[in-house]
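Notes from the 1:1 (GR / supervisor)

We went over the backlog. Supervisor wanted to see one worked example end to end before approving the batch request, so GR pasted a single chain during the call. The sequence is below; no edits were made to it. Supervisor asked that the structure be written out right there so they could see what the output format looks like.
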Amino acid sequence: MALAIKTAVDLRNGHPLEIQRDIVSFGRNILAPSGTSFVLQPRLFVNDPWELIAEAIHRALPAGRIRDVAHSFRRQARDYFQAATVGHETAVRPVLLYYAFLNLSKAYAVAKGNAKLIAKAVHGVRAVAPPKAIPGSLIKFEKRGVGVFQELLTQLDGDPVVLTSDLKLGNLLPQILPGHRLWCYATNRRERFLSIENFELMHSTAAKEVWLNLYLDKHTLDRIGISEQTALSEAGLAKEFDCANGVAAPHLVCFQQRTPEAYLADPIEALACIVTKMKNRVWETVKIASPYRKPYVYCCPTGERRSRLPQMLSIYLLMFFFGQVTRYSPLYFEDLLESKYGPFFDTFISESPMQYLYLMASDILNREVSKPAII
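Structure output shown during the call:
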């Protein structure tokens, strides 16, 4: 069905949002609960986030069995992760990394109050025997027992509609940010990740409203051949954002939040609503140079929307798939690496683990955790 062409609106009058004398930019983990409100959380820099994760779990849970189990999951995750990073055999790494992700995810969920994962839990997913066509491989979601994947989907505010049907590998692969252009190369498809060039959190003190403007590069849209309205729709923003006129920089396209978030006493209340609504619509690459996070929107075709996952779960699920393949169909894994998808898969296995670790650490701590620049 063709997209309805909407008239662009004018940029709304306001000024940059300031909290605690700082101009605020959007981030998934910039706020932490504090009593009945929230506080801004500055970024933390660590070379190794595991001890930081341990401290956060220890602080989140009272002394007792639940805390001990969460730390047990964390310690297992760390050992699996370290074993995978020092190994040289590519075929061994996915199994170790999946179990690192699995146990770290359990520790995260328990620290956030999900005690169900302390008892016997199941993976919640299984990979069907691979067909010849890579995109046609299926991942099935199981309904028996307490599924770790299902609990993590809930914890990360993912859409449960994904659980109602099998997930095709071909719908999962383009959701992986590291190496995305290698996926484009292998499939001869256009890019789906669009870089967000700038966030603006705008504030009207008179109306007591806060809203988000996000800016994309117009030249990128032209290069890959999609309109502003298509980008808005496929990024899942069309119901809540409009294209806006009046942008000072002609090479930028502005998507303006259609209905500002109102607040009663403190603009941080409105900011919290924006973060909640947007956190699964923005993908991030963890970087070791300022601004330490590179944000993107993911343009998902209409026919694949039911397969769309939160960023961390897309990494988690693909590592599960590779872990299953290397355990039960090792020769097929060799075929995968020798296929046209091989460079993409190799990049995923080498680059995604640290991305997952820092993203998960940020969610466990409720603040951005980044790797410091090497000087």
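Supervisor's comment: Residues 9-31+193-298 form one domain.
Batch request approved.
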